[in-house]
Amino acid sequence: MKAGTALGILYGATGMPLRAARAAQGASFDSTTVRTLAHQLSQQPYQPPSQTLPSALRNLNFDQYNSMAFRSEQALWHGENLGFDVEFFPRGYLYAPRIEMNEVIDGQSRPIAFNADMFTYNDPALRVNEDIGFAGLRLRAPINTPGVMEEFCVFLGASYFRAVAKGQNYGLSARGFADGTGDPTGEEFALFRAFWLEKPKAGVDSVVIHALLDSPSLAGAFRFTIRPGETTVFDVQSYLYPRKAIAQSGIAPLTGMFYFDANDRTRVDDWRPAAHDSEGLSMWTGSGQQLWRPLRNPRDLQFSAFSDVRPHGFGLMQRKRAFTDFEDVSLNYEKRPSLWIEPIGDWGAGAVDLVEIPTPNEVNDNIVSFWRPQDALAAGHEYVFTYRMYWGWDTPWPTKLARIVATRVGEATDDSHTRFFDLDFAGTPFDRLPDNPHFHLQCRTSAGEIRNVVVEPVPPIHGWRSTFEFAPGDAKVAELNCVLADDNGPVSEEWVYRWTP
């Protein structure tokens, strides 16, 4: 498909998306098509996709929207034994923008038109017999049981997408791009406004999706190579073309929920031990440091930035994997994926940012993390970020360091103004120990005082525990850092923690 043709399909003379039926049949498509389209798009003023809906689909609630179910027999590639098929979401509820869908076969692109017969309707009034386009898509594959097609990935809403590995339930999400996250003036949400789905060859273990990103500030082209399995892996190539300078850009943004856990439940009266999609931010810095930052649900909005150069990776991780960690039969937090980002190539200088937003419940996503380049993205330039995403049970790389498997915080017994911390360490360093091993906790704080440090073995977890008291004094915020060490140096990842009242 020529970029000029595609641009006309998306914008048209009025600046609104035109029906996919107007697309040229059998138009050529290659690896540069969406990049060229995004670059051309960035040189024009932003024009949002149509959000006009037939009256029957306006103001739908959650239940009404979900009553429109896609018929599995209508799925793209259904019954072709390719190992993948694609279902589509209708427009309505929170998903008003029209998203264009296209199939690519042997270098030729064709539009996929909406058809009301693709869906079942509990309420016949919701059936619309015209091509209104789609809101998003879901991928299916036999990820859990051979021969049984199951959903494992969804692209729906703005530039959000999410995925699971074998045996998992949905949890945190990712986005194509973040702009101004947490800014008091408001965040700008980019949109995947068109997709091109490459028909896979029989016997391959991956599927390729191209996506066109658009927003008032930039346009972009994405290529996702997706492999479901024990760990579901996305290879991502992104090309960004700013329309204007972007100071607060977020690359590979992750979004999740943290309501409470043993380190932060003072304002929660709940029968469960914990409730969260992710419990911590893990980082492997360019200099080789391995950091663990437990998440919190703070009283006030919190921003943290971890400066780095050429990072090895970062991710929002769920380390608790036992049912008894959450005791929730319906939500199964222990089965929610961790998501690790591995940069490919030199990402230069910048920071891993963490935004923690207060939430009164577990309904709201309140955790955001991303890579923020040191320099602003300049208008008229091309920026390329390539990375690999691992949706799974753990980080994809082995470590010889002990990990923090629990952080517990409470009131010190003899002083209501002092906090008691309990850190549990487990892992490889404790597999073979000499008689009478000696470990100590190296710790520091930016404010207040750390005292009464104790380190002792914990046989039930085949690990070690360190406890200490933190006296904040008059401080309103403190950055705490701890690492377990022996006489030869650190044996654990570094625990980093922000204390606030």
Automatic annotation (TrEMBL):
Coiled coil spans: none
Main location, first listed in the record: periplasm
Domain Glucan biosynthesis periplasmic MdoG C-terminal span(s) in chain numbering: 29-499
Record keyword Signal present: yes
Location in the cell: Periplasm
This protein's UniProt keywords: Periplasm, Signal
InterPro entries on file: Gal_mutarotase_sf_dom (IPR011013), GH-type_carb-bd (IPR014718), Glucan_biosyn_MdoG/MdoD (IPR014438), Glucan_biosyn_MdoG_C (IPR007444), Ig-like_fold (IPR013783), Ig_E-set (IPR014756)
A Pfam short name: MdoG
Pathway recorded for this protein: Glycan metabolism; osmoregulated periplasmic glucan (OPG) biosynthesis
GO biological process entries: beta-glucan biosynthetic process
Entry GO CC: outer membrane-bounded periplasmic space
PANTHER family, per the entry: GLUCANS BIOSYNTHESIS PROTEIN, GLUCANS BIOSYNTHESIS PROTEIN G
Family classification: Belongs to the OpgD/OpgG family.
Name of the protein in its database record: Glucan biosynthesis protein G
Organism: Komagataeibacter rhaeticus
Taxonomic lineage of the native organism: Bacteria, Pseudomonadati, Pseudomonadota, Alphaproteobacteria, Acetobacterales
